[in-house]
C-alpha cells in the first residue's frame, strides 16, 4: 500500500536580474534584441528606444537545460554555459546554477531530471530561456552593458591598399 502523498512542495521563486541594452527592434517579427554582458536575448517587442538600458528578469522556472546544442526547438533564447552549483531544495525541486561567463543563471528542475541527465558541477550544457520579463524600472544607460565595437576592416581604411 502506498503512503499518502505529502503536501505538494511549493515551487521556489528563484530568479536572476540582468542589466541589458536595447540593440534593435524587428518590427516584422515583433521582437526586440537585448544585449547583456554574456550575449543577446530576444524578447517580444518593447517600446524602449534603441540604446536604452533595461533590467531583464529571468525566472528559474522558465529555464530548461539541454546537454547538446538545441536546434529543433521553439525556444529562441539558447545560451551555452557551465553548471557551477546544484542545490537540492524541497522535493522534487533542484536549483541548477549556470555560469554564462560573468552572469549566473538558475534553472529549476526536478531531482529526476538531474539524475536522468547526470548533471554535475563542471558540466558544459545549454540553458534554454522560455520567457524574459522586462522591468519598468529605469536603468541609466551608463549602467547598461555596451556591445564591443566591431574591429575596423584594415583593407577598407582610407589611404591603405
Automatic annotation (TrEMBL):
Region Disordered: start-end pairs: 140-161
InterPro entries, sorted: Mo/tungstate-bd_C_term_dom, Mop_domain, Transp-assoc_OB_typ1
Domain Mop: 72-138
Keyword Nucleotide-binding found: yes
Keywords assigned: ATP-binding, Molybdenum, Nucleotide-binding
Gene Ontology biological process terms from the UniProt entry: molybdate ion transport
Annotated TM spans: none
GO molecular function: ATP binding
Keyword Metal-binding: no
Coiled-coil blocks: none
Name listed for the protein in its UniProt record: Molybdate transport system ATP-binding protein
Amino acid at each position: 500500500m502506498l503512503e499518502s502523498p505529502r503536501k505538494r512542495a511549493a515551487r521556489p521563486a528563484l530568479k536572476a536580474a540582468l542589466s541589458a541594452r536595447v540593440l534593435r527592434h524587428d518590427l516584422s517579427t515583433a521582437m526586440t534584441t537585448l544585449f547583456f554582458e554574456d550575449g543577446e536575448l530576444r524578447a517580444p517587442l518593447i517600446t524602449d528606444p534603441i540604446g536604452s538600458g533595461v533590467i531583464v528578469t529571468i525566472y528559474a522556472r522558465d529555464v530548461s537545460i539541454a546537454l547538446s546544442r538545441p536546434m529543433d526547438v521553439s525556444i529562441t533564447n539558447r545560451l551555452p554555459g557551465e553548471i557551477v552549483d546544484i542545490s537540492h531544495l524541497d522535493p522534487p525541486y533542484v536549483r541548477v546554477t549556470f555560469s554564462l561567463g560573468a552572469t549566473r543563471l538558475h534553472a529549476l528542475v526536478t531531482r529526476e531530471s538531474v539524475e536522468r541527465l547526470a548533471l554535475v558541477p563542471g558540466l558544459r550544457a545549454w540553458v534554454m530561456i522560455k520567457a524574459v520579463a522586462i522591468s519598468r524600472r529605469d536603468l541609466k544607460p551608463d549602467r547598461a552593458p555596451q556591445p564591443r565595437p566591431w574591429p575596423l576592416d584594415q583593407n577598407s581604411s582610407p589611404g591603405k591598399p
